[in-house]
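Please fill in the sequence for the structure shown.

STRUCTURE ENCODING:
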């Protein structure tokens, strides 16, 4: 049912944890199952230099989050924003159809973390 890559990321997830001084944090919930995903990013010169995630989610959510953190490290914010749930699922060798909704958590939480970073930057400019 799951690809070997999904199983591998589920069993050995990358970048689990938090970043206490994160530049952006994105929280996303899945209304279908009630699972939650939080992504933390550090940004320097328009690039994502570090990323971590915490999840209260299923195996597919863990695997997609692990994969998304691997995919965005070192990428520009624009490149990271271009990553969709479909891109992540494809990178994992596909997900069962009834688990595709789980991959939304990772991509959406990442996009929210970038939005959070950008709004904080605007605040800084506004008050600076
Ligand atoms: Fe909730 Fe997969 S079942 S994220």
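FILLED IN BY: designer on duty
SEQUENCE:
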């Amino acid at each position: 049912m799951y690809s070997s890559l999904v199983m591998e990321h589920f069993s050995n997830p990358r970048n689990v944890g938090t970043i206490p001084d994160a530049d952006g944090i994105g929280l996303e919930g899945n209304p279908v199952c009630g699972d939650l995903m939080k992504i933390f990013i550090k940004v320097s010169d328009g690039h994502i230099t570090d990323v971590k995630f915490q999840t209260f989610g299923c195996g597919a959510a863990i695997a997609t989050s692990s994969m998304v953190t691997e995919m965005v490290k070192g990428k520009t914010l624009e490149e990271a924003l271009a990553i969709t749930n479909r891109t992540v699922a494809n990178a994992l060798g596909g997900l069962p159809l009834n688990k595709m909704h789980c991959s939304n958590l990772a991509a959406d939480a990442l996009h929210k973390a970038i939005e959070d970073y950008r709004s904080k930057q605007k605040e800084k400019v506004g008050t600076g």
